[in-house]
Each structure stands twice: as structure tokens, then as C-alpha cells.
## 1
Amino acid sequence: MDKKNTLGFVFVFISMLLSLVNTFSVKITGAVIGIDIKSSFLIILTIAFFLVGFIFLSRIGKGLVALVLTGTTIAGISHKIHSDREKQYITDIKITAPYWTNQGKFQRTYRWDSILDEVEEKYKLPKGLLKGLAMRESYGDPLRLNSGKDGGAGLFMFQPRIARHYGLKVHGKSNNSSKDIEHGKELKNLIKKYKNNYEKLAKIDERFDIEKSAEAAAKYLKEDYSKYGSWDKTLSAYNQGTPAPNSKDTEHVKAVREYQKYYNKRDKH
């Protein structure tokens, strides 16, 4: 903790002590309606110490605000979304449901609703399709890594080769389109190194960038739709490279479609 933060805590602590002293004094003197000069002076002094302490601690305050707004974790480590672009989308969105539940996935994804709306409209995707895909792939968590540690990352769980193909900057040298355990370890260490700082990580690997990854995912879906002529086949191809014969009955497609319905039902816009 640096000197400014220490001073901030000291001033706030003193203001709390002064407040207690003043409260105790009022109770002893019985000054319920009127406040004497001594009490007024203590109130002014309390406010002054508190404000000075708050100024010193303002940087910590900003971090706490970001933490409350994002309300999301990876393995118990809190994300801190610092980007001004993202802040305008996460205001008033609080995560109250458990991470793995439908509601939890919805709440996390809903933080990026305005971004995803813009991208869906731009590429003429069915309403909620991109959002349902994000709920399925990453639980709406932009810093999530594939649970299989295979190198997939971000809101739409792009593998390195596919990400590069759609213009995203990728950390490291991997150019795999399938399992790459070493790359998965690299990403895990990268997130640990930067302590889940979204702003820094999104610049190092654009799969973590909400806007850029959403744009890439939309291009991917639109391109496959032009080949297959079916959104179910497109979703199936997104998951396994080529569409399954019974695409609409596959686990992945059914899950995305369910999330799409769930999201649209709760979407306020």
C-alpha cells in the first residue's frame, strides 16, 4: 500500500473516531434537538477528515466501483473492467445469480447488451443469437478460458487460427484451430500475470476484447450461414467445424437456442 492510501485510511479512521466521540458527547449532554458549539466543531472536523481521506482513497474507490459493476469471477478472482467504452454498458447491471446458472449466464452477458445489439443488427443476425452463443461458450465472461484448457478463449471461445483469420490479435505463436494445451497454459499465466485486468488483457489478446470478438463471431456466423443456409447448421459448424447431419438436435445447437430464447424473454430492450 503506498503513502497516499495509508494517509487516506488514517484520515477516514480519525473521522470515524471523531464521529463516535461526538455521538457519545451528545448522548451524555442530552443535546437531542440543539447542538452546542463543541458538537458543531466536531461535526465540521469529522467531515473534513473524511473528505481528505476519501480524496486520498479515490483510486481505490474507482477499483471498488468497477468490481461491483462487473460482479463476475474466474476461479474466485474478480474482474476489473476499466475501459470507458465498457463502463457505459455495465452500469446498474448486478450479478446476483450463481455463475453456472442460466440467470447467472444471462446477467453476465447482459452487461454487453448494447454492444451485442449493435453487432447483431449490423450483420443481420437473428435477435439474441450472438447473445445465446456467448452464454453457451463463456457464460458471458470475456476473460474466460476453455474449461478443457485447449487454448480457446474469450466471450466466444475462439481458437488461435480462427481468431487470426477474422482479424483478431492473438497472444503467443499458436496457430492451432483445435486443442493446444501449451497455449492454454500460456493464457492462464497471462491472466494471472495481469490479475484479470480486462483493459490490459484485451489489448494483448483481442479474443478478450468484447467488441472485437463479437464482431469476429458475427462475421464467422454470417459467412457460414451463406454456405449452409440454416442457422442451426451454422451454429453446429461453429462448434465442430462442419455441421452435424442432425444439427438442430445436437447438444450445442439446442443449448444455444435455449439460451437465445431465455435471453430474449428477459431482454428489456
## 2
Amino acid sequence: MLSWVEIDAQRLRNNIDAFRTSIAAGTALMVVVKANAYGHGLETVAPVAAERADWLGVNCIDEALAVTRLGIRKPVVILGHTPLEQLESVVRNSYRQVLYRLDVARALSGAATKLGIAAKVHLKIETGTNRQGIPVGHLASFINELKKFPALEVEGAYTHFANIEDTLDPSFAQSQVRKFKEALGIIEREGVRPSQVHASATAGALLYAEMDFSMVRLGIGTYGIWPSRETQIAARERGRLLSLAPVLTWKTRVAQVKDVNTGDCVGYGLTYRASRPMRLVVLPIGYYDGYDRKLSNSGRALIHGQPASVVGRVAMNMTMLDVTDVGADLDDEVVLVGRQGNAEIRVEELAEKIGTIPYEVVARINPLIPRVVSDNSGRGR
């Protein structure tokens, strides 16, 4: 393999267990495996997550079907849009569909009537993020229209916080909770009583136990990554700093070792010029694989447990490292993200260097790169 991702199954279990102990007893736990399990590999992660989760969350019908093909029988919620022509498959497989459009409700009802089973939906309530969702002021009329559609069951109601990760100020999240509770009151007055009510994702579950309702949606925290530095600070202040361990290690191997003379340039654009005789290695990964071009002349990787700097531009399929002081041989293992020996490169480090968030770094690791499970069940954190 040119490059591969190792998934530590026991760390994954431990992370979920840590959240389980931090939420109120009886609160259901949905583990979100959308976007190829946040880049960790849906087919690799979902079976392990399903051991601990009550529900699984995905973005689209294709992801839901992939979960089903794995033989997983936990309820699956589709949190993103499903085209009308694919809604019969949603009903046939008993997936739960997010609902905020009446034409989707009509199509779900038609499919459910045809198949002779209920179509279960989770109403998405708009409380301030202004993405998909039903505005609170339109909710009563929306529900009255839903009552006209047979075989439609409102199993859930939920919302999503807009500013819970990027700040230590909880005021906007609290305003969203007030709107959500108002919406829940409207839903109840209309005679609808969803059994699953959820608002908190990872940061909410960590910081605001009063916002858990009957279920929480665990996303980035599943994978041992904190949503933000602010979340980690706030969790520490509240005495809720869970022990989370990164699940993902991204590796490759040395494809070539070469010597470079003083004054020689490295890579496209001649952006790096050697100031001394150097030894370089070429790695068979680049920005196509998800190793961001902004890591040119700024990233680092681990060889023999030591950091080696990226020199020159990251190319589409190749990256060069300075190993003059480290040493390297052909086919040596290189760690791009994760631990090797006593050294570690965390996703957060890469995110800071390229000016983005950890979510994007892991989600953009090319899905064609193999994901391999390492199950060290006897190893601690």
C-alpha cells in the first residue's frame, strides 16, 4: 500500500464509553458516521461504533445503505436531504428521515402506504443556524399539513447549535434552547409527542448536560478529536474534561531516498533551496490523498520516531521530507498523523497550519486510501 489509515478500535470504544458515562442515565446515544465516518472509514468504524451506540447517524441514503450492507441493525437516521425518487428506499429499510419539506412528507407517506409500513421522521427545527429546518413560526401549520398524510410517524424532533464550539459564551446556545423548547411546546399542543428529542452534538454533550434531552448526537468526539480549543477549555473549567484518545493514524512509506547539494531546489516553483548538503525522502502521497498543499514547507512527518520537515511544495501525489538529521531507508514507515515512538502529530496541528478545523483535515483524507482496523483490546489509553 502506498498509504493507509489505521483505526484503533479499542480507542473508539473507549471514547464512546467516556461520553456514555458523562451523559444522564437513560439518555440515548447516536454516533454519527457521516462523511465516511469523518474520514475514518464508514465500513471500518460503523461496526465498532454500533457495539456501543443506540443509534447511528448518516448524511445520505447511500451511507445508510452502506451501514445496512454491513449487517448492522441499529436504527439509522438520515440527517441530510434525500431526493424524492429515493424515499421509497428510505421507508423500505426503516431509516429515519430528517423532515422539513412537505413534498418530502407527501412522498414518504405515499411510499409508506404502498409498502404497508410506517415512515418514521425526525422534524428538524430551525432555531438560529439557518440551514435546513422548519422555522418555529411555521411549525404549527407544518404539523397540521403532516396530519393529512397517512402512515407518517413523527418519531423525533431536533435542532443543531450554531455557536457552541467557537466561543466560551453560552448565550446564543441558550437562546436556541429556548426556541427549541418553544417548538416542542407547539408540537405537543398539536398532539404530536416524539419519543426522541435531541439537540446536543459533541460540544453540547460535553458542556451543557441540561441540553441533552432524550438523545445526544456524538460526532467528532467519537474519534478522539476535540471540536475546538474553546470546547476543551470550557470542559476543563466545568470539570468535564473527558479522556479522549485519537482513533486515527495515517501512514505511508518512503518511496525514494536522495541526496541534494547546497543550492539545489526542491519541488515545483523552486520554493525551497537547500542551504546545506541534504538527504531527502520522497513520499507517495500528496494533496490528492488529502495531504493539504498548504503544508508545503511547513508540515512535518515522523520517521524513526523523529520529526522530519516537509520541504518544497506538496504535489498531487508526492511530498518530500528533509531527513538529513533523522536518516531513512527505502520503505521505512512514515507517520503523517498519529504517534510513532514518543513523538506525535495531531490532527489539530495540521488544521492550525493550513488554517482550517480538524473536521476538514480528517474528512478530506481520500476515501480510496485503505482503512485498517487495529484492535488492541487489552491496551489502555
## 3
Amino acid sequence: MYINVNRAIELYERHLRSADLAENTIKNKLQPLRLALPVWGSVDVKRINAQNIDDLFSRYEWSPRTRNLYLGVLRQFFAWCRHNRYVPREFDPTLSWRNRTVPSVERQRIPVERFGELLDATQHPRDRAAVALGLYTFLRGSELQTLQVQDVDFTSSLLRIYRHKTREEDHLPICLELREELQTWLNWYRQDRGDLQPNWFLVPSKRSNHFTWVDGRQVQVTDTPPLRPEKMMTHPYRPAKRALAALGLDAPGEGEHTLRRSGARALLDSLRVEGTDSALLRVGAMLGHKDTRITAHYVGLHMEREQRNELLAGKRMFPQGQGVTTGLRLVR
């Protein structure tokens, strides 16, 4: 059967959508295939070979993590092609490729002592609300984007969210710090737009700062661009990146996940100081994790190792008389 790459990708996308996968999942599975099109051309799928794979990975300078991810996506695509008999049963142009070792890089976490400083570094009241929600609820960008005014319940101190990744609804606690931030934000929102509508986005889109010419020079019209309450914020990572940059903490890959990691670590430390049982499980529940291994990665294993060494280095592991003998017996 003849089928070119372009048509195969179209059919593969239809298959992914029929499987009812999340939109972001579909996007991630199609990304390397669409990047491959200008490299491979619209050739017959059966003609793709190891050289084509070499050309693709040589064309783009992907990090080891991204490279491994895309290699796995390509293998899934070729497995789907084999299943549908678009290619021979033994067909796999990625056969000679292996995953690369991903260097362990400790991601940035903002200490709780600098939360106030980070909030003050925001440039707009909406951005401050977005950063506060990230720090105190650990929301993902997609969860932050779809929050509406009606999702805030000050009476029960709960925030209703929808986890798009797992397709579950959840209710997160509104702590006192977040309550103050949200009340300040909603008062500003109300002054800017009038009576708030329940279905308006909680942290909506806003128009960019606009400029005009006055007496031959360009001047900014307003310091607080008007909000668009019925339009979703399109780039939820930007408020965090701008605030981090203002503190000299911006780096590639940092954004709303930096807030998520920072809040999770601060909560874990707080729960441990209080002696709370199952602290990691509670933090995982806030993050929306079902596996504590993922939570452990988020909060930072290197800090666990440091605490381990501080606890045990040069000290007894067990109380006197437990787990150790008090003397040695000479055996002849």
C-alpha cells in the first residue's frame, strides 16, 4: 500500500483524536512528525530509513531529554504504521538509535523567604494574582488559564480547579496568604471592569501596552493595559518569567513550573517542621500527582540528601543499645 508521510500523519492525528487524548498530548505526539516533514519530504512511508532519522536529528539541536522524547514518539508512530500495514512488519528505521543519558540538572526553586519579593516584582495586578496562584496552589499553566471568577469560594476557602492533564475536578484550599492576594486582585479587577461576571476568567488576557506619537515622540498610553475578561490568558508562564527576570533569576525553562516547585518544597518543609505524617503524600495531592516518586522529583532529591547527611554524619543512627552491640567478643 502506498501512503506518503503527510497523509500518514493526518491519519495518525485522526487516530489520536479518536482515542480521546488530551489536546496537549496530541500536540506533543505530532510535534516531531511535523518537524520531520520539511526534512523528509512527502515520500512514501515505506521509504523512510535510518539516514532520514539521522538527517532529522542532525537538523535540530535538541537537548538529550527532548531527543529521547521525540525518539519515543517516532517509534510509536512507526508501530502504528506497522499495525495498519502501511509498512512491512519488520520496518523500524529507529532500530539503531538509543536514548542518550540525560544529565541531572537541579531545577530552580524560590525559597519561601523570597515569595513576597517575587510577588512585588510583578508589573501588573493580574500578573501578581497569577504568580500568587502558582505559589500557593501549585497550579499548572493550563489549570491557571481556565480558572473563572466563580471558582473562588471565600466562604469555604476553596478554589475549584480542573486538571486537564488527568481530566479531574479538584478543590484546593485557599490559604490566608492567597486569600489576601485574591481579595486585593478582585477589588482591582472590579474597579477596572465593573461588576464581575461569574464566567469571566479569573486571570484573563490583557492587551499589550500601547503607544502613540505626541509632539514627535512615542509615549505609552497607559501603565495598566485594559483587561479582556472573556478571553483566556494565552501565555501563563510569562507573568512568572517576568517576575523571575526582575529578580535576576530567569533562565531557560523557568516559568509557572518554578512557582509550582517552589510552593511544593515550601509546603513540604513546613509540614515536616510541624511533624505532619505523610507530608509527601499531602504535597503530592496539592500537585495532582498520583505517584510520590514524581513528587519527590519536584521537591528536589538533592535537598533530601543534604538533610540525610546533616542528620547522620558523625552521629548515631540508632539510640544507644538499639541496633548495635556495646562490645566486641574475641573469637579464637
